[in-house]
Structures are given as C-alpha cells and as structure tokens.
Design a protein that fits this description.
35% helix, 7 helices, three-stranded parallel sheet, alpha/beta, four-stranded parallel sheet, single chain
Length: 223
C-alpha cells in the first residue's frame, strides 16, 4: 500500500510541476478505498450501486475517507441493455440527486454513448451511454439533464436562515468592500449583522448605506 501511495504522490508532483494551477486527483474504486492520499486536490471514486440506501450509506463513508478534501464521484451509471432505458433514466436521476445531497463536489455520468472500446476491442454487451451507438438520445439523457439542472440543491430544499455577523472597529478602509461582497452571496435566506465596536472613523456611515442590521456599541474589543 505505501509503495503505491508514494508512486501516486510522485505522479501528482510531476503533474503539479507542469501545471501548478491544475487540480490533481486519483480516480479510485471501492476495493482500493484504503489508499491514503491526502496530498490530492480532491478525492475521486467510481461507484456503481443501484440501490438507493446502499449508495446513500457509502457516500457518507466516502465523505469520512475524504476528510477535508472535496469528493467527486467519477463514474455513476446503469446498463440499459439489461435494465431497459426507462430504468436507466430513473436510476441516474436519483443517483445524481443523492450525490449532491451527500455534499459531493460533483459527479460524472458514464458515459455519453453506447459505443465503447477497451484494449482495442469494441464492447458490444454493455449499453451505459446516454445516447445509442448512432448518437441518438436515449431517455436517460433528458433525465440526467434535468437532474443536473436542479443541482446542486433541489428546488424544494429547505433553506435555513443564516446569520453573517461582521465585527468591525475603525474599518473604513475595508468595510465597504466586505459588505459589497456579502450582497453577492448566492443563498436565498440570510441576514447580515454588523457590530460596530465604537469606531471613531467613517465605518458607521459606510455601513448605513447597506440594507443590513447595524448594532453600534461602545468600544469594548472585537471579542
């Protein structure tokens, strides 16, 4: 195990040297989940589970394995040859929804077309594509489109109220830019509370330009 981890780390270092701003990962598989790769920019696993409860539980496990790193599901899919196009579309829809609900950073559906080659040979007995071998859309293509359109959060999701508290003292040089950025938060249910700790400059006047709650107190320290 350690030998493989050291080898992957060297490969990662080579890639980062060539492209320091690029993101590097290793696409793992459940049978190799024991590999400890904290040097990656994000964790990536290929997961093929066709029952909702099993996938939900395993995604939670993968989040624990990933620790503080983002988790991307590198492959999800279903074979329409054995399961039918209707079932393929249905499963892919809830798989994508479940991946986002589990807090993953993203998912990749396998694959675009049923035409697939491995080792120089055409694979004829699997149909994982969203289109058939002639590139005609299958029912799963629309299901996947809708699922990603609704992600990462479902339209009927409950959005708890979030309070953003900004403590400031003589912050006229930075408070305007700070509050301007808070207006751009992409979240439907939040409030901003600015606690002005007895500022003697123009901090309070700047805050009053914004539709945020202002609490001014005598100077007692930001803590």
């Amino acid at each position: 195990r350690r030998k493989i981890q050291r080898y992957l780390k060297r490969l990662y270092a080579i890639a980062k040297k060539e492209d320091p701003k690029g993101l590097g990962t290793y696409v793992n598989y459940p049978t190799k989940e024991y590999l400890q790769l904290p040097f990656l920019d994000f964790y990536c696993f290929n997961v093929y589970l066709e029952k909702q409860k099993q996938l939900e539980l395993y995604l939670n496990r993968l989040q624990n394995i990933s620790g503080e790193l983002p988790l991307v599901i590198g492959e999800i899919g279903l074979d329409s040859r054995r399961n039918g196009e209707e079932k393929q579309g249905e499963v892919l829809r809830w798989q994508i929804k479940m991946v986002f609900n589990a807090g993953c950073a993203g998912a990749i559906v396998f694959g675009w077309t049923d035409e697939w080659h491995r080792g120089g040979y055409s694979i004829e007995d699997w149909n994982f594509g969203l289109t058939d071998r002639n590139r005609f859309p299958k029912k799963a293509l629309q299901s996947v489109k809708q699922a990603f359109d609704e992600g990462p959060f479902q339209s009927d999701a409950h959005w708890p109220l979030i309070s953003v508290v900004v403590c400031c003292y003589n912050s006229e040089a930075t408070i305007d830019k700070c509050l301007e950025s808070l207006q751009k938060l992409d979240y439907p249910n939040y409030e901003v509370i600015v606690v002005n700790d007895g500022s003697t400059d123009k901090t309070e006047d700047i805050v009053k330009k914004y539709d945020f709650q202002l609490i001014s107190i005598d100077n007692m320290g930001l803590g």
